[in-house]
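for the writeup, i need someone to sanity check this before i put it in the appendix. the sequnce is what the collaborator sent (i think, or maybe the updated version? ugh). structure was predicted straight from it, no edits. if anything looks off just tell me and ill rerun, i have time this weekend
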Amino acid sequence: MTETAPRQRPPRRRKRRSKLFNLVMGIIFLVLGIIGILLPVVPQIPFLIMSLFFFSFVFPGVRRWMRRFLHRHPKIAHAYKRWREKARRKRQQLIRKEKEWFAGR
């Protein structure tokens, strides 16, 4: 009789968010930003920035505009780069933990 090796699951892929999801989130944050303009209690700038962020995933023109803006404003670009780097490190740490968990099984 031949022994078979335990079947391992293939590594999980990260699901890509659909364009529809990004568009809906961009619209929601845009509406919240407009509400923030009308009501002095609600902050508008973070919501408008998040709407631009989500719209950049859907519309190439917005993405190009954001790249030019970041190129012209290095301080903001540096903060954005640190934020993205932190997210990348968190993702890598999660992947490392999953690999260790699968190896331990």
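The chain has a mean pLDDT of 85. The chain is about 75% helix and 0% strand.
thx in advance!!
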